[in-house]
Amino acid sequence: MQARPFGHSAPIWTLLFATLALGITLGAHGDRIERLRAALLPSAWAAQHEGAPAPDAMPRGRTPAAIVDGVYPATYFPNTERLGADEMRITALGTGMPNQAKRAASIAYYVELGNGDKFIFDIGLGSMVNLFALRPDFSKIDKVFVSHLHVDHVGDFMGLHVGSWLSGRYTPIHVYGPSGSSPELGTKTFIDGMKMAFQWDIHSRTGALPDAGGQIEVHEFDFRQENEVVYRENGVTIRSWPAIHILDGSVTYSLEWNGLKYVFGGDTYPNKWYMKYAVGADVASHECFLPPKALAEYFGWDLNQATFVSTRVHTEPQAFAKVMATLKPRLAVGYHTVQSPENNAAIMDEVRKIYDGPLAVARDLMVINVTKEQIVVRMAVVDDYVLPPDVTEGYIKAPRIAPQNYPSKETMAGKWEGYTPPPMPKKGQ
Ligand SMILES: [Zn+2]
Ligand SMILES: [Zn+2]
Q1: Which ligand places an atom closest to the C-alpha of 122?
Q2: Of 25, 93, 221, 381, which one is least surrounded by beta carbons within 10 A?
Q3: Distance 280 CA to ligand 2 centre (A)
Q4: 417 backbone dihedrals φ, ψ, rounded to 5°
Q5: What's 14-35+58-386's CATH class?
Q6: For strand 88-94 and strand 366-370, is the pairing parallel, antiparallel, or unpaired?
Q7: CA of 191 to the centre of ligand 2 (A)
Q8: Nearest bound ligand to the CA of residue 244
């Protein structure tokens, strides 16, 4: 029962830009032993659990350790911490706008659970860079939930599909998303169109990569459904409800597992469904757009246009603040804005006029660890250049048909005679 030496026994309510680590008191002796046991390297774990796969394919070069007594390092270094069995970790992969910045990709969130399950919520443009920077076990990343079909929420879908197929995923990827007001505006049409558009790419890799990994399975559901189950497996329940955003077919999701609840807001004007179904959220995320004046200045728009976009199409900071002041989650997460120190300061000024509860204005690679006892918000530090993660035995052994596609004889006849490639080594060398 140790509090962090410089920590706090009560939550710190405000967080902006900074690392926040809450001290806590946690854990009987038994818990501690269990956590230490869980910290064993996969190889040691496998030796103790004969025949069973290691819980995670940890990349080489990093040694994961358990978090003991709820005291976290100030900075999150990917693959150095073993997620507790009862714990949820939410990583912001993208928190910005369609006009991306190096440090603000479009919207995406990565949720990892202590039972080993992993989920992606939205996969906006540019966000894949941050997912790859975490060097995850891609064999487990096969479920994507999209809030709506704006490019800043789905633009990196093919990057995820092909990138993860190349990096360890050997089963189909599953996409869950809403219908639209007509079939051509729904998620199924979007994915069918992606498959059609990327035929050349998929064909070119077929045979070299595991067959099943090239498949995409779509699960389209009615955008109008209210808090209905979209996904239920392995103790995890994901529900959706409608959002109000330009066209029909934008939704919000909640994920519930192990007594914890995470709400992923998507894009929406403040709405009655969110106020009803996000109740009880441990972490409630909701868009928190730039206020009209800051938006007008940033884009050079007139105040009329900026006010319409900020307060009619999206949720301005004061509206976000009202939502959270009413909802009172354990942590409110605001996101989806044009990020700069000035803009973030403008957002905070507006939010704090109304809401003084626990708050994080999300930035890319913000990491939120959630347990029943505490919520800890930190920033991840990642390498500028990352190797792909190690792949599993399952990936290596997964069936592959013989490659079917080569350039034609006519094209091959164009090889330059001035170069001869080295002889091919024997297979497996
Ligand atoms: Zn949108
Ligand atoms: Zn958006």
Answers
A1: 2
A2: 381
A3: 25
A4: -75, -10
A5: alpha beta
A6: antiparallel
A7: 19
A8: 1
Write the burial class of residue 412 (CB in 10 Å: 0-12 exposed, 13-18 middle, 19+ buried): exposed
Query: Which ligand gives the minimal distance to the CA of 245?
Result: 1
DSSP alpha helix (H) spans, 71-226 = 127-133, 151-154, 157-166, 187-197, 199-205
How many residues are listed for the chain in this entry? Answer: 429
* CA–centroid distance, residue 148 to ligand 2 (Å): 8
> Which residue ranges make up each domain of the chain?
14-35+58-386
- pLDDT of 7: 32
Those residues whose C-beta lies under 8 Å from the C-beta of residue 8, and which sit 6 or more positions away, are 22, 23
Calculate how far, in angstroms, residue 201's C-alpha sits from the geometric centre of ligand 1.
Answer: 28
Strand partners, 118: 112
Ligand nearest to the CA of 152: 2
Tell me which ligand sits closest to the C-alpha of residue 150: 1
Paired tokens of 54? 């290691």
Joined tokens for residue 408: 């034609």
Indicate the SS3 state at residue 216. Answer: strand
Question: And the tokens for 165?
Answer: 């197929």
Query: Token pair 């603000």 is at which residue?
Result: 104
Residues contacting residue 179 through CB under 8 Å, at least 6 positions apart: 185, 186, 187, 188, 220, 221, 222, 223, 249
Gap between the Cα atoms of 263 and 240, Å rounded: 10
Output the CA 46–ligand 2 centroid distance in Å.
43
Q: Low-confidence residues of the chain, pLDDT below 70?
A: 1-61, 404-405
Q: Which helix (H) or strand (E) element contains residue 277?
A: helix 272-277
Rounded to whole angstroms, how far apart are CA atoms 211 and 225?
A: 34
Question: Tokens for 7?
Answer: 């920590």
Over residues 239-279, the pLDDT tens digits come to 999 999 999 999 999 999 999 999 999 999 999 999 999 99
- From ligand 2's centre to the CA of 107, what distance in Å? 7
Q: How many angstroms is it from 307 CA to the middle of ligand 2?
A: 16
Amino acid 58: pLDDT:
56
- Ligand 1 center to 269 CA (angstroms): 11
Measure 315 CA to ligand 2 centroid, in angstroms: 11
